[in-house]
Amino acid sequence: MTQSPTPSATQPQAKPAAIDALIEYIECSEYSTLPQSAIDAAKIFIFDSIGVGISGSRVERVNEVKAAANLWGQGKQAQVWVTGEWLPASSAALLNGFQIHNQEWDCVHEGAVVHPMATILSALTAYGQREGLSGKDLIHGVIVAVDVATLIGGAVTSGLKFFRPSVCGCLGATAGICTMLGIKGIELKNALGIAYSQISGTMQSHVEGSPMLAMQIGFNSQSAVMAVDMARAGFSGPHDILEGPFGYYRLFEDDYALDDFYQKLGHQYQIEQVSHKPFPTGRAAHGTVDALQSLQAEHGFSAADIESVVVYATPLINRLVGRPVKDDMDVSYAKLCNGYIGATALLSGNVTVEDFDDKCLLDKQRLSLAKKFTIRVNNCTDPNALAPISVEVALTDGRQLAIDMPAILGNPVRPMSKAMQIDKFRAACASASVAFSVEHTDKLINSIDALEQIQNINTLIKQMVSPI
């Protein structure tokens, strides 16, 4: 009988299935071994996401979501940010997730094309509030959740079909809740499988500029909460949810490659690779704003001097924000319209949440200027790239100006300063449905700064509710 050869030490070892590698990573993660850089990054983006979620309370459709959620049951488990209504944790997660994403102001992992914190933070804070978990628990859960969501999404080499922020976000949020609770083994596998069985969200809402885009975040945040509850109750789910015959990579995406997934998992914390959004628009339009601000600062022209603007952008940018300007745009459409966003930046020097109020959407000067923008595809071949871009501006005096933007403001290689982050947070809190006072905002900033010391995050959530 011939014996099988013994593998030599130099032979490469077979990699585990992607889901098994994720399970092992989640189970072995401990707060005490996290690098300070990852903890600091988690606090930065918890801070940022709380701010944009507070601001998101100003969107009128929040009241419609509340009206529906109130039909799904009552419970004093977790609170809606700003207004403070007590709801079951799953409903609070849904509402707060919607508030974080409904103005397109929340952070994004550019490589994965995943807005990780919207689904993740809304789910983790709702569950953590119900269970009375600590600030350290929240930080730990966020770090693991962002790794899971973005490493799954970052392995995809084809373009978006399903809305990756919601579908990957749900899996990440489920992993994060399990991390906070110390759930391992079969219960962890079941929780992820139950979450996978619920994940949802397509790019059709993006194409149409539908408010359902942000609602997909809310649904998947809610699903993560429900998935963990079902697993804790003993229910089972499918396990081979990534590479199985009907797993994520075969069912939701066209192509994928796992080399970077294995190289980064447990070695590079993805929370440190997340990009801020300086402006409340789709990230795909930020390069245009960044470029125009840079050109105006250097050359001193005004909106009245514009003859035309041509933006050369990646295929994904063209796909996401290359839509035509319309005279009857609603806010969801305008936030993803590069021409409108660029015109706004030229007219005011900035882009704020107020620039998408009805009076601005109907502003004839702004719409006329927006129609002077053209967007074209550059030579980038990566279907998931959000940079580089180039912008060419033709002025009425005959000058031709141009700028190349290899990285956009907010990206880790061009980060927002601490002062810029705080200014954004203060503006967000001031724009809430019930504006936070300066004093209240200061207290909230100090609480997030000391998040590791908070023993029960209910004390933090209470400060995210307006006292008025």
Protein topology:
Blueprint: H1 18-28, H2 36-55, H3 61-69, E1 78-79, E2 86-87, H4 89-101, H5 116-131, H6 135-154, H7 164-181, H8 185-196, H9 204-208, H10 212-232, H11 248-251, H12 259-264, H13 286-299, E3 306-313, H14 315-321, H15 331-334, H16 338-348, H17 358-361, H18 364-370, E4 373-377, E5 389-395, E6 400-405, H19 418-430, H20 438-449, H21 458-463
Parallel strand pairs: 3-4
Antiparallel strand pairs: 1-2, 3-5, 5-6
Helix pairs in contact: 2-4, 2-6, 2-19, 3-4, 4-5, 4-10, 5-6, 5-7, 5-10, 6-7, 7-8, 7-10, 8-10, 13-16, 16-18
List keywords for this structure.
two-stranded antiparallel ribbon, alpha+beta, four-stranded mixed beta sheet, globular, 6 strands, disordered N terminus
Tell me the strand order in the biggest sheet: 4-3-5-6
Low-confidence stretches: 1-9
Helicity range: 40-55%
Q: Which strand-content bin applies to the residues? A: 5-15%
Structural shape: globular
Largest sheet: 4 strands, mixed
Order of helices and strands: HHHEEHHHHHHHHHHEHHHHHEEEHHH
**What is the CA-atom radius of gyration, in angstroms?**
22 Å
Q: Which structural class should the secondary elements be placed in?
A: alpha+beta
CA(first)-CA(last) distance: 83 Å
